[in-house]
Amino acid sequence: MSALQRVTQWQTFARTWHLFDARWQNPFECSSLIAKHLQGRHKPIYHPLNDCGDMVVAINTRHIALASDEWIKRVYFHHTGYPGGATWTLAWELHDKDPTMILKKAVYSAIKNNLQRRTTMQRLFLYPDDKIPDDILANITNQIRSPRPVPTPLPDPASEEFQSFPRIAPFPEDYVLK
């Protein structure tokens, strides 16, 4: 076995750390992508009874994007277990309380309901912005590509790029709209 084959085989069995940027991403679209890496379904050695998943660090969960009016229509249910302990929380209220919770619940529901789900979720690290502790940042070796491109902001009107942009010529004064 060559050294390259040995390293490739080691990388297959080792837990690698992946970084996912959730800025402008729909959490319900990207949750299946994150769940795939958490469970190890992207590896050739995957088996449902084998715990071969990787670690995933998701950043910028505060800046997720829900479609249209889903912020006010999506409702999360919680029950304390006591009579009258049912509560329904809107998505924007849950996001204000904890910016990481919507993505966490989306990934949790994307993973198949079995005995491995709770231990699999322990390998998911969520951060509301891009500040990651140094001990976790040192382990990250891979990045998961975002399914939706992040839009670039419009340039500042005072910038040189904005001033050099070609302008549409105004109508001549003698032009009559018909």
Automatic annotation (TrEMBL):
Gene Ontology molecular function terms on file: mRNA binding; structural constituent of ribosome
UniProt keyword annotations, A-Z: Ribonucleoprotein, Ribosomal protein
PANTHER family: LARGE RIBOSOMAL SUBUNIT PROTEIN UL13M (PTHR11545:SF2), RIBOSOMAL PROTEIN L13 (PTHR11545)
Entry GO terms, CC: mitochondrial large ribosomal subunit
CDD domains recorded: Ribosomal_L13 (cd00392)
Name of the protein in question: Uncharacterized protein
Gene3D superfamilies on file: Ribosomal protein L13 (3.90.1180.10)
Biological process, per Gene Ontology: negative regulation of translation; translation
One Pfam assignment: Ribosomal_L13
Domain of life (superkingdom): Eukaryota
Keyword Amino-acid biosynthesis attached: no
InterPro entries named in the record: Ribosomal_uL13, Ribosomal_uL13_bac-type, Ribosomal_uL13_sf
Keyword Ribonucleoprotein: yes
Organism: Nesidiocoris tenuis
Family according to the record: Belongs to the universal ribosomal protein uL13 family.
